[in-house]
Design brief:
The protein has 232 residues and is α+β, with helices and mostly antiparallel strands. It folds into two domains: 78 residues, 2-Layer Sandwich (Pseudouridine synthase); 133 residues, 2-Layer Sandwich (Pseudouridine synthase), CATH 3.30.2350.10. The chain is 22% helix and 34% strand. Strands 1, 2, 3, 4, 7, 10, 11, 12 and 13 form a nine-stranded mixed β-sheet that branches. The longest helix is centred in the N-terminal third of the chain and has 12 residues.
Length: 232
């Protein structure tokens, strides 16, 4: 049973175990959020249930103490994202973390083509984890290979896209909503989506709105959490 989400009392026992909904700010790593929570509540056993990339914002579930045993339950829940795919550019990281190395025109891209490609990304699909990710190969994080200019073989993974709605098209930007299974890299969808259209693409904005029934509207910012619960 998953309990104790978003504590609203001052006398919370984080050592015993709590689950906290945090609205992760842009340019923070998920590990930095964990570190900040650990520092604020003076508890060593702290973890998160599903990484958000540094440039992504939104819902991050942090577990402390005995509630870290529930991390797998959270990870298995479907995730809802809102974001923007920007067509016409490609980067190594598949988002704005790295400089673009290719640029192509998008004037010939129609709504019909976009919706046609969208349909290929519904249901069960296979995806190769990006080089700029925390996946380990031979005991080493992929992003460490990538930062050294190395590329290594990665195995395809099966994921599920339960919903993929195109909310608005303002070329070169495509606004979307995706509900997907754990292990889905939205950056890879953005990159592959652009490749399918023949112009390239990258993920220029991403926000996680939901993890299962838990919504970012219930979450605390880091500042709010620290003001309410910090032991310092």
């Amino acid at each position: 049973m998953i309990t104790n989400l978003t504590p609203n009392k001052i006398d919370v026992d984080f050592q015993k175990g709590q689950s906290i909904l945090i609205d992760k700010p842009i340019c923070w790593t998920s590990f930095k959020v964990v570190h900040q929570i650990r520092k604020a509540v003076k508890v060593k056993k702290v973890g998160h249930a599903g990484t958000l990339d540094p440039r992504a914002t939104g819902l991050l579930i942090i577990c402390t103490g005995k509630m870290t045993k529930s991390i797998t339950e959270f990870q298995d829940l479907p995730k809802t994202y809102l974001g923007i795919i920007t067509l016409g550019k490609k980067t190594e990281s598949m988002d704005l973390e790295t400089e673009h190395f290719e640029e192509k025109p998008v004037e010939n891209i129609t709504e019909e083509k976009i919706l046609e490609v969208r349909n290929k990304y519904l249901g069960e699909i296979e995806q190769i984890p990006p080089m700029y990710s925390a996946v380990k190969v031979n005991g080493k994080r992929l992003y460490k290979y990538a930062r050294n200019g190395e590329t290594v073989e990665r195995e395809k993974r099966k994921i599920n896209i339960y919903k993929f709605e195109i909310e608005k098209i303002e070329l070169p930007d495509i606004h979307f909503e995706i509900i997907c299974s754990k292990g889905t890299y939205i950056r890879v969808i953005a990159n592959d989506f652009g490749d399918e259209l023949g112009c390239g693409g990258l993920l220029s904005k991403l926000r996680r709105e939901n993890i299962g029934k838990y919504n970012v509207g219930q979450a605390l910012t880091i500042d709010e959490f620290e003001k309410r619960y910090s032991c310092n």
